[in-house]
């Protein structure tokens, strides 16, 4: 009888230990999933906030939005395409970044685009210098276009959403975003053909739209 009780107790302990271990593993897994949503904004120090605002409005379609009234320094907030751009007026005009030769390997921000021809036309109308590049990977073609803003910060426009996101190794899980059915084919303007259908989860368009709507709701509340 005692042997049976010991055996039963041992079995219960093993089951409890296994369950506890699984709970710990689950908690550790949840801890690695940081509660991050998306990139909120990029911030630039510029020589002239007014000039930079005009550039981002007219060239990239950004919208000037309300910023906290508690700010006592010169600046502006813009928003569109699921991301914000915050501009700060340089205290020393000389501090602003100086324009240099366009170097695609330099620091830059990049926007995904579904029609490169429209961007090229816009830049040519504004007499903005740009350079282009083409990347080919596994039968997929990616068009890239680089140019500077008024302060020399580099901007890239590309159809990089054509490339699937293939994780190599990481302790953090990759958040997957449902594929947008409205953008299954992206025009490859430079080559005049149509890119292959995007694989699942290679575009963040759905998440970007959700975040944009959320941000706009928050803006309305702030008013």
UniProtKB/TrEMBL annotation:
<dbReference type="InterPro" id="IPR004360">
    <property type="entry name" value="Glyas_Fos-R_dOase_dom"/>
</dbReference>
<dbReference type="InterPro" id="IPR037523">
    <property type="entry name" value="VOC_core"/>
</dbReference>
<feature type="domain" description="VOC">
    <location>
        <begin position="38"/>
        <end position="160"/>
    </location>
</feature>
<feature type="region of interest" description="Disordered">
    <location>
        <begin position="1"/>
        <end position="20"/>
    </location>
</feature>
<dbReference type="Pfam" id="PF00903">
    <property type="entry name" value="Glyoxalase"/>
</dbReference>
<feature type="compositionally biased region" description="Low complexity">
    <location>
        <begin position="7"/>
        <end position="20"/>
    </location>
</feature>
<protein>
    <submittedName>
        <fullName>OLC1v1002324C1</fullName>
    </submittedName>
</protein>
<dbReference type="InterPro" id="IPR029068">
    <property type="entry name" value="Glyas_Bleomycin-R_OHBP_Dase"/>
</dbReference>
């Amino acid at each position: 009888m005692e042997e049976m009780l010991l055996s039963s107790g041992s079995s219960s302990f093993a089951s409890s230990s296994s369950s506890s271990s699984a709970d710990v593993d689950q908690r550790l897994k949840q801890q690695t999933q940081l509660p991050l949503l998306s990139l909120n904004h990029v911030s630039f120090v510029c020589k002239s906030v007014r000039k930079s605002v005009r550039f981002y409005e007219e060239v990239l379609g950004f919208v000037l939005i309300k910023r906290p009234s508690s700010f006592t320094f010169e600046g502006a907030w813009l928003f569109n395409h699921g991301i914000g751009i915050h501009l700060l007026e340089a205290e020393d005009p000389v501090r602003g970044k100086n324009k240099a030769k366009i170097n695609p390997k330099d620091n830059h921000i990049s926007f995904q685009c579904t029609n490169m021809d429209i961007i090229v036309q816009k830049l040519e109308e504004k007499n903005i210098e740009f350079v282009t590049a083409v990347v080919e990977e596994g039968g997929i073609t990616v068009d890239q276009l680089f140019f500077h803003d008024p302060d020399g910060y580099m901007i890239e426009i590309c159809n990089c959403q054509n490339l699937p996101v293939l994780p190599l190794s990481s302790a953090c899980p990759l958040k997957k975003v449902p594929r947008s059915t409205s953008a299954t084919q992206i025009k490859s303007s430079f080559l005049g053909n149509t890119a292959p259908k995007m694989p699942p989860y290679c575009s963040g368009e759905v998440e970007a739209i959700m975040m944009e709507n959320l941000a706009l709701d928050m803006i309305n509340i702030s008013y």
